Amino acid sequence: MTKTTPSCCDEFDPNSLSFEQALERIQQSVQPIKGKKNVSIREAAGHILAQDITSPLNIPPFINSAMDGYAVKAENLPQTGEQTLKVIGKSFAGVPFNGTVNAGETVRIMTGAVVPEGTDTVIMQEHAQLIDNGATANSIKIGCGHRAKQNVRNPGDDFFAGDTIIKAGERLSPAKLGLLASVGITEFKVTRKPVVAFFSTGDELKGVGQALKPGEIYDSNRYILFGMLQKMGVDCIDMGVVADIKEEIETTLKEAAKIADMVITSGGASVGEADFIKIILDEIGQVGFWKIAMKPGKPLAFGHINDTLFFGLPGNPVSAMATFYQFVQPCLGLLEGETVSEPVRLQAKCMSKLKKRPGRKDFQRGVMSSDKNAQLIVDTTGIQGSHMLSSMAKANCFIVLECDAGDVEVGEMVEVQPFNELI
Ligand code: AMP
Ligand code: MG
């Protein structure tokens, strides 16, 4: 990657925080919300577990077959040649064979069925030759080469009674719900969902369905925020569009802060004459930071209004999405009590030339895919204007270019951050 020393005409702003510092500041200032509640497994999807879960059972709970076939005792397997075994009964999943199996005998067994007393090994049915001796007295013939204790699942193979199987702070995915059900746990504690109030600011904004006058545009940010917040499963309150009038924004902010754990606005976070967010936050709350050396998304206000967290996102829709994705998303996780992990980043071969000026960390929009050798490659979505939502809609990843990086040439390796389901 071409590296250039930042100069006075670069994008560097000495008053802005680095991306990493901003993330750290957010992490330090978030207290998980206190509320916990008992939920049943049917209403738990997407919640954050508020207790460790210990298994009351060994899983599997009993020795069972991994195949459809015949249960035998390992010491009776033939070392050479073939052996004939008499089939003395059946063990089906949920309907065990209750007798004991002796030398020269076997039991027909199905996947998931209890391996009967006196056996410890299963021969796949494809490896057994059935000899039909009449309706009641079947036999099978098996060859040599079978492994002792093959094709069985032992108690505790997955985990044992007393093991912690899910920890507090984990988000409950369908797999985790299945895991809880597998050990018979149907009620547990989760954290309360955060309440998030949001509104757009801007004299130019109209809600969809309204006619546009000259100079007006439709408000897209509230629909973006609503979608992303819904995907995060939080309770959201849409407070509409507020004009660029300081008093009105202030009143709405105060009202929102009373009813929500987090307030998110978009627009008015910069330094223009109609940008009031930072001034108001200074007056009615505490500003944590308000400028970040990232692109898109330099004006991003973060702070508190009393105990309520506040994000003032930039108005440009791509910037609003990128800053939500990078900052609001982990912050909401922490607020909800989630153990938040680093986002996945991968190295991809860049198939387009990328323009990049040193001074800010770039999150360019990319489309990643695999070439015919399974090498990860990435293309740009094209012009990177932060007002161009179509590029965000096309993209499936951010191409992350460090602060001091310059242009990227075709064929260089770059870091990509795949989108999760939020975008
Ligand atoms: P601002 O951050 O208020 O200076 O706005 C920056 C740019 O984003 C301007 O072009 C605004 O018209 C545009 N913008 C602000 N809010 C929205 C919104 N909710 N939906 C679409 N565009 C917006
Ligand atoms: Mg504005």
Task: Give short descriptive properties of this protein.
423 residues; alpha/beta; six-stranded mixed β-sheet; disordered N terminus; binds adenosine monophosphate; binds magnesium ion
Kindly describe this structure:
With 423 residues, the chain is an alpha/beta fold. 19% of the residues lie in helices and 30% in strands. It has helices spanning 19-29, 174-182, 221-232, 246-259, 277-284, 317-335, 389-394, and strands spanning 36-40, 53-54, 64-65, 69-72, 83-91, 105-109, 121-124, 128-131, 139-142, 152-153, 164-166, 187-191, 195-201, 205-206, 217-218, 235-242, 262-266, 286-291, 294-295, 299-305, 308-313, 346-350, 361-370, 376-380, 397-401, 413-418. The strands form 7 sheets. It has a 6-stranded mixed beta sheet, with no helix packed on it. Strand 23 and strand 24 (376-380) form a beta hairpin. The chain is elongated. It binds adenosine monophosphate and magnesium ion. Adenosine monophosphate (AMP) binds at residues 200, 202, 204-205, 217, 219-221, 266-270, 272, 275, 314-317, 387.
